[in-house]
Structures are given as structure tokens and as C-alpha cells.
Amino acid sequence: MKKGSLSEVAMSKPLSILVVDDDRSIAKWLKSVLAAEGYRCQTAHSPEEAEALLHQERFDITLVDIYLRESSGLDFIKRVKELQAECNCVMMTAHASVETVARSVNEGAVEYLGKPLKIDDLLSLVKRLGDRDSTGTSEAPPAVLFSPPTSIVGRSPKMLDVYRGIARVAASEATVLITGASGTGKELVARAVHEHSRRAAMPFVPINCGAVSETLLESELFGHEKGAFTGADRSRRGLIETAGGGTLFLDEITETSNMIQVKLLRVLQEGQVRPLGSNTIIPLDVRVLAASNQDVDALVQAGHFREDLYYRLAVVVIHLPSLDERREDIPLLVRHFLDDFNQRNQRHVSIRDSAVAALAGLPWPGNVRELENTVERLAIFSSFGEITASDVERGRPPLKTLGEPDARPAGTLQEMERRLILQAMRDADGNRSLAAKRLGIGRKSLYNKARRLNIDLGPEGS
Ligand SMILES: Nc1ncnc2c1ncn2[C@@H]1O[C@H](COP(=O)(O)OP(=O)(O)OP(=O)(O)O)[C@@H](O)[C@H]1O
Ligand SMILES: [Mg+2]
User: Fold this and answer.
1) In the prediction, which pLDDT does 89 show?
2) Count of C-beta atoms within a 10 Å radius of residue 434
């Protein structure tokens, strides 16, 4: 069969569409838009009403609002598939969570439409589904048009994989290792796993293993009794215990010493912890998530990270792609960060499309964090409440030049890091927070890196 354009398809055999939304005005509006394009359209305002229609006639597409009042739209999708297996279900939702995405994909939803609905998105989606059915092609399943979970933004295929990963593991108790370069959103993902687990109401306790010394980390994690070591003038509960019932997030896990790794492994294996200097053993009910921006596999191969702990932690691995690998998400992220900025500061800064395009064309070695910081800086300095392409050009952090290939060979990764840090410190006039920001890392990460690379950051407080 020839591949028809929208109008051809609509004319030869109009697609029939069922809109299910308890908001009558939206349902009515959708019907008029779809009818104007030549589609046959019916509306229903409850699953029961919709089911009655599904018994009467065949539909090519069902558009379902996920928050139907009576029963969830997800259960309804399942029902549609039972009654009409061929019907394409499209979810319309204002707040897709990782869970709903995974469930609805499992139940057979083929697409997502975020709310507020955009007519163009809707029509192109309907057209795509119509074309697909009319050509009878089943290759290339449609890229899911994705309404993202509230705090994680992105609808690139790679991010969709991440959402699926989160959704799959959240409900389980599995230990998860989250990997990805600095600023790609590892902590955000860890929080999402927690928020979608049965532990959501309990504490989420993050600890940056790279930010403190070995001894401090040991007592922070495991707790100690009064007098356990010099300076322990009172007993202290460890973070592992504090996370009881909830989730412990071990950030920068690869920065831990062998001693800490051994102790952590024991805690994970035995499900209990003994504070330093104590004889009491405390049983644990804690889920562990860990993150690293290093190639953990390589560290294990090189003997820098314990293999036994690695296998214990990496029951499931969620890898976050660099921003370079999901450039199509940049415009979404930019608008998200600007909205966020406006909300926090009660401002109304807008951004020109050309400025968004300019941002989308730049390299982001510091990934999402660097983009976030840049948008915030641009918003602060936008003179007439509007960010323009030339603001982007001017407001580019000095790091740009650093991100570009150097005339000299780069040398080792460490040398490269060293040079970047020194240059960022120079560009920021010795201001550590600013340098860290421009490097797209946290202040503590900057300290750690400086310590490891033997860089003197200059006097404190600058
Ligand atoms: N997909 C995303 N959508 C919205 N915000 C994001 C996204 N990814 C990252 N961010 C934001 O970018 C910043 C960095 O994210 P996060 O701290 O999770 O990164 P990270 O991978 O843990 O970085 P590091 O390795 O440096 O600790 C945070 O402010 C976070 O809210
Ligand atoms: Mg982090």
C-alpha cells in the first residue's frame, strides 16, 4: 500500500479516534480539532462510557487522560488492549512519573503527550500513527513522545532508557550503581529511585564519600561510641543507621579507601552494622544506591576498586549519557531551568528561540550542571528580561576555550584535569566556588580533585 499523506489517509479511510478525558472542555476541544482535520472522533468522559463505545465500534487510536477520576487511565489502557488489541493507545498526562511511564508502556501505550497539549504535537502524532497503520509497517516503533517525570527533564531515547531503568528497579530492593560523567544527573536519578520505591516516605540519606577523610567517613557511615577514638567525646549514630527504613546513597563510591570498601561490603553482606568502639550490632533495613563518575569497571580491572564490592553494588547499573549524547534535550532543559529560575526569583525572564538554538550548539563538558549554571547566569544578567543569542555568545564562560581541543597533545586525563582546574581558578580570580561552578562540579569535588592532583588552591575563603 502506498504511503499516504495525512489528508490522503484521512480521505481514503478516516481514522477513528476515541478521546477519553474527564475534563469535558478538553475532550470537546480535541474532538473539534480532530474533526477539522478529517478524522472521525468520539468522546467519553469516564472509562465506563469509553468501554461502552469500544464494544460498539472499532477505533484506530484512543487518547487517554491518565488521571481519569474514577479509575486510573493505566487500568483503562489495559482494558482497551483486551477489547481492541490493534488500537493504538496514547497517554495524555501532565505528570508522568517514572512509574507511570513504565507501567503504561507495559500495558500497551505507544505514545505520550504531555499536558498542556500542543496541537502540533497531537496532529503529528496522530498522523504518524495513521501512516504507520496504513502502510502496514511495523518496523521502527515510534520514539515515545515523552512527558517527563516532574524533576528529570529529557525525552531523548537515551533518557527514556534511563527512565525505564529507574522504573524497573525502583520497586525492587536491588542495589543500584549509577554511573555517568560529572553533572549528568546521577543524584537526581538516585532520588527518583528512592521516590518511586516503597521507602519513599522514609529518609533518603546521601553521603559524598569523596568529600571527607577516611577516618571521618568511617565514623560518619558507621557511627561511633563515646571514646571510640581521640576526640569522640560523645557517641554518634552513623548515617547507615540514620537511613534505616530508607535509602543510603553512596556518592563518589570509588573515592573510598580499601578499608572502607571492606567494611561496606560486610555491612551489605550481613545486613547489620556495628558502630566504632561498640559491641552492639544493629540490624539494618536499608537500601543502598551508589554513584561514580569514573569508569568503575576499569578501576576494578586496575585493582583500584574491590571487585567483590563492585559486584555487590552493581546488581543493576544505570548509566547516564553525557549531554553531548542527548543534545535534543538541551532546549527542554534550558526552558526548564529558566522556568525554575523565574519561579524561585519571581522574575519573568524569557529567552529567544535563537538563544536556545545557540545554547544547543555549544559543547557542555560540565553536562547538565554546567548548562543549568549558564542559564541561571544568563537570566541574572539579561538586561531587558530577555535572553538573546548575543547574550549567549557574550555570557559564555571562559571554560569554552578550555573545552576546545588544545594545540598540544592532551596528555593524561590527570594532566588535562590539572590544567582545567588551574585555568578555571585563574579565570575565577581564585574564587573556588566560581571555579567549581564553571567546571561544572561541586565545591567539594573541586577540593577532592585538587587534593588528588596536588594542586594548591590558595588561601581559604577566596
Ligand atoms: N535531566 C535533568 N533534568 C533536570 N535537571 C537535571 C537533569 N540532570 C541534571 N540536572 C540538574 O543538574 C545538576 C547536576 O545534577 P546531579 O547533581 O544529579 O549530577 P551528578 O551526576 O550527581 O554530578 P556529580 O558527578 O558532579 O556529582 C543538578 O542541579 C540537577 O538538578
Ligand atoms: Mg553527584
Assistant:
1) 86
2) 18
